[in-house]
Amino acid sequence: MPAALLFSAVLLLLLAPAVWPSPVTLPLERAFPTNHGVELSQLKAWDSVRHRRLLQQTTTTYVVDFPVRGTFDPSQVGLYYTKVRLGSPPREFHVQIDTGSDVLWVSCGSCNGCPETSGLQIQLNYFDPGSSSTSSLISCLDQRCRSGEESSDTSCSTQSNQCTYTFQYGDGSGTSGYYVSDLMHFASIFEGSVTANSSTPIVFGCSNLQTGELTKSDRAIDGIFGFGQQEMSVISQLSSQGIAPRVFSHCLKGDNSGGGILVLGDIVEPNIIYSPLVPSQPHYNLNLQSISVNGQPLPIDPTVFATSSNRGTIIDSGTTLAYLAEEAYNPFVNAIVAAVPPSVRTVLSKGSPCFLISSSVSDTFPQVSLNFAGGASLVLRPQDYLIQQNPIVDGAVWCIGFQKIPGEGITILGDLVLKDKIFIYDLAHQRIGWTNYDCSLSVNVTASTGGGRSEFVNAGELSGSTSLQDGPHKLIHIGVMAFFLYLLVL
Q1: Side-chain half-sphere CA neighbours of 477 within 13 A
Q2: How far is 462 from 471, CA to CA, in rounded Å?
Q3: Distance CA 28, CA 418 (A)
Q4: What is the rounded distance in angstroms from the CA atom of residue 328 to the CA atom of residue 84?
Q5: CA distance to 92, 179, 210, per residue, from 130 (Å)
Q6: Is 378 helix (H, G, I), strand (E, B) or coil?
Q7: How far apart are CA 79 and CA 71, in angstroms?
Q8: Residue 19: which residues within 8 A CB-CB, separation 6 or more?
Q9: Cα separation of 368 and 354, whole Å?
Q10: Angle CA(201)–CA(207)–CA(210) in degrees, nearest 5?
Q11: For residues 228 and 237, what is the distance between their CA atoms, to the nearest angstrom?
C-alpha cells in the first residue's frame, strides 16, 4: 500500500468514532459497601493516593531559561539583570537578579520615586494591572497573602482589603506596593531541542513607591527578581506548580561584555563541589570556616563566621562587591599585602588598599581560598578579590574589592566573587554548589536534582525563540507528526 494511502487509513481510524457490534455492559461495584462503616481518614487517604498518582501522570517539569545582561564592574553597570514578561498582552521588564531577596516586583503606574529613564540604555516600563486581561489583585483573605505575612515584609490593608509589602535593602533603598496575580511568560525546554514559550500565573509585587538608590537613573531598572527560598519567591511558586524544579543555577560572565546564564534547573558539570546550607535561615547562608592565602590559614576566630542574628556568610547576587567583618578583613588585607613582591607600590584610595603593578595580576597576587563546611573550598583568583581601576602609564592599579564592615557583621559574597563560576542553588537538597567555568560557553541542564535527562542550553538562546501564540500549537503538531511517522515506519 502506498505511504499516502496508509497515512490516510491510519488517520481515518484514529479520528473515526468506535463502532461496537452490541452494547457493552460493565459492572460497577462500590469500593466501600454501604453496610460497612468507613472512617473519614481512610477515605481521605485513598483520595490522597489517587491525587498523587494523577499529578505524577500529568505534571511535566521544565528547564526554564532567562537571558542575562549586565556586569559586576562598578564603573560600568555593577549589577546583573534579566528580562521577564508579565500580563496579557505580555509586557517586558528588566529586573535585577537578586538571590538576597524573595519577591519579584516591578514598577507600576502612578509610582512615586520610580525613575523614568535609565543610564543602562534600556526602555523602562510600568506594569498596569488594569491593562492586563489576566490580572487580579491579591486580597487579605487570599492564602498567598497569609503565606507572605509570615515575613515582616508583607502586611494587609483592612481599608482596601489589599495585600501589601514594604522592602528595605542593605544599601538603604526601599520600595513598597501591593501584590497582584498575573501570567508570567517564559522560555522553557523539554525533550531535547523542543522549545516553547510557556506561561503560568504567579504572584508578584506592583511597586508604587521607591526610595534611595532605586530612584536614581544611572543604573535604573524596572524592578528586582528575588530568587530566595521563601513561599512568595518565583522559584518556590513554579516548583509548587510542578512547572520547574526546586533548583536554579547561574553563571555570570566577568568580562566587560557581561551577561551569562540563568536557568531554573541543575547545571550538569562534573567538577561541582557542594556545601550544605545553614538550616532555617531567611537567606542563602553557608558555614564559612576559615580563609587561606597561598594555602596558609589566616588567624581568624571561627566564631566571626558563625551564623547568628548579626553574623554569618551569605551568597548574594544582588551585592556587587564582597564584605568581611572587621575581625576577618584586617588579617585578610595584611596577608595580601605581605604576599605581593616588594617592588609593588601600595597606596590607599578611598580607604581601600590599592596596588600599582606593571606585570600580570595573576603572577603578582596570591591565591585565596574560602573554606566551607563539607570540605568545599571556593578558590579565588586575584581577579575575584581585586578590582581594576583606571589604567596608568606603564602599569595598572588594582584595589582590594572586599570591603570592611565595622565591628560585628555579616560576610556577604557578591558578584565580585560569584562571577566566572557556575553556582547551583539546590533547594531540594539544601545545598549550594560551584565550580570555575567560562560563562560564555553552553551548559547542560537537568530538571531533576537527582540526575536524569539533561537539556543543552546556550546563554539566553531560548528567549524569544518561539512566538507566544504559536508555541503550544507547534508542540502539539510536532507530537502528532512524530506519532504518524512512527506508525508509517511500522
Answers
A1: 6
A2: 12
A3: 62
A4: 39
A5: 16, 14, 21
A6: strand
A7: 6
A8: none
A9: 17
A10: 155
A11: 11
pLDDT higher than threshold 70 for residue 379: yes
**Burial of 173 by CB count in 10 Å (0-12 exposed, 13-18 middle, 19+ buried)?**
middle
* Domains assigned to the chain: 63-263 (2.40.70.10), 270-436 (2.40.70.10)
Q: Is the dihedral of CA 141, 143, 145, 151 positive or negative?
A: positive
Helix (H, G, I), strand (E, B) or coil at 267: strand
In angstroms, the CA 421 to CA 377 distance is 13
Q: How confident is the model at residue 452 (pLDDT cuts 50, 70, 90)?
A: low
Name the grid cell of 216. Answer: 536614581
Tell whether the model's pLDDT for residue 333 goes beyond 70: yes
pLDDT computed for residue 458 by the predictor: 60
Give first-to-last CA distance, the chain, whole Å. 13
Q: What percent of the chain has pLDDT over 90?
A: 60
Let me know if 10 is exposed, middle or buried by CB neighbors in 10 A (0-12, 13-18, 19+): middle
349 forms beta bridges with 352
The pLDDT tens digits of the residues spanning 97-140 come to 999 999 999 999 889 999 999 999 999 999 999 999 999 999 98
Residue 153 appears among annotated catalytic residues: no
Question: Given CA atoms 214, 219, 225, 229 in this order, what sign does their dihedral have?
Answer: negative
What does the DSSP assignment read for 320-377?
SSEEEEHHHHHHHHHHHHHHS-TTSEEEEETTEEEEEESS-HHHHS--EEEEETTTEE
- The number of CA neighbours under 13 Å toward the Cβ of 415 is 26
The CA distance from 224 to 201, in Å, is 18
pTM: 0.80
d(CA 324, CA 416): 13
Determine whether 63 is exposed, middle or buried from the number of CB atoms within 10 Å of its CB (0-12, 13-18, 19+): buried
The residue from 65, 73, 102, 316 that is catalytic is: 316
Tens-digit pLDDT profile for residues 16-40: 443 334 443 334 333 444 444 444 5
Q: What is the mean pLDDT of the chain?
A: 81
Establish whether 98 is a catalytic residue: yes
The yes-or-no verdict on residue 49 having pLDDT over 60 is no
Residue 21 preceded by cis peptide, ω within 30? no
Please pick, among 65, 73, 98, 384, the residue that the annotation labels catalytic.
Answer: 98
